[in-house]
């Protein structure tokens, strides 16, 4: 047979559209043409496939005109994931394997020159796409990628180490162990999620800072964003690094979606399974690195922090364009990257923890050292953060420097495990009431679920009028008050809960 069809999948955001690898062998001047909007990495597959077939002892039809089409032609294809299906297509078209037996199978994998299979990125995203199909599909992947894909329940994943391991399963006379048994290089993987990693840094390491720890607990229970303001060395980074350990446990679907994005970026590791990660990009990163972009579109740090924490240290030092790009994802929990040729959407439900100094020298309002900054310098420094961006951060907390006697003599604080239990109870209370975290409440749903009593409503109205809050700031304070009430086990939001929430909407320290 001179024509063979092999199924594979491309990557477009978190979607994995189907790709048919069509291979045709014809008489004529020997050549190897690869068409179908293939990127440079895909076109280089010609040399990898040729060498892999020859070094594996298989026949490469060098005397034929080989045409490989990746259909549909208008779908961009990148990476080396099409090496294996191209090689199998050539073998099927030349009659070395049974083309009919390839039906119902999909393949992805990069070939080394010796025929060994190398991992490809996005295996989990591909497996999630396959789970949504009405008819189950068997997928063959290299080591590393197959273990990722097998985390998705309801999928049929096979791992192959070498090109010959795959070829043996599709020769005209099937081998006796074609039922998926392990023959050393070919094995069907069963869904077996790795054991969750151990806990990270403990909150007990942070001494003092009771107000900041309370703010972390509230932020974790309600899904709120947090801004820490304080002088250098006051413990802002220590607090932020321990925040992920306070968050409620992840569900399986949340873990799969988070792991799929990490797999898409080539950053997934089994140690991350069911763990909320903390992404902490340097303040010199660009807007594209932070929110995603490129061609084809790739996820940025906010998507890699999906269902986890995005920690932005030295908050005002980030480029203005990068910070302003955070405004829409903070509201919607998604980022849409539109380019002239294509459009991709990535989830970005992260919890923002930002840290900054109150002024350029860092010691404004501190008793630790005298501030050398002028009022104009302080105003200019704090003015790097726009009002609309600060409006979207629910909790603004001051982290003062501790005196030496409190830092060295204080006993260890409350461990993360105890705080995490309270956070989990409050989060579960919110889920039972409204099916989502308090931070996600909007409009009439917020007014209904907040359940303010009369004194609390009057207090909130007076505070909003006196502090000249926007409607968004008022609603944010109401969400925080609802979370404080959940932590207290109260069904209604009282004046005490609103009063505490108002304290967390403080503005940055104005210059004297």
TrEMBL record:
Which GO MF terms does the UniProt record name? ATP binding; DNA binding
Keywords (alphabetical) are: ATP-binding, Nucleotide-binding
Q: Which InterPro entries match?
A: AAA+_ATPase, CHLI-like, MCM_dom, Mg_chelat-rel, Mg_chelat-rel_C, Mg_chelatse_chII-like_cat_dom, P-loop_NTPase, Ribosomal_Su5_D2-typ_SF
Which top-level group of life is the source organism from? Bacteria
Question: Does the record carry Nucleotide-binding as a key word?
Answer: yes
Q: Where is this region: Disordered?
A: 173-208
| Coiled coil regions in record | none
- Residues in MCM C-terminal AAA(+) ATPase domain copies: 300-395
Q: State the family it belongs to.
A: Belongs to the Mg-chelatase subunits D/I family. ComM subfamily.
Q: What protein name does the entry list? A: Mg chelatase, subunit ChlI
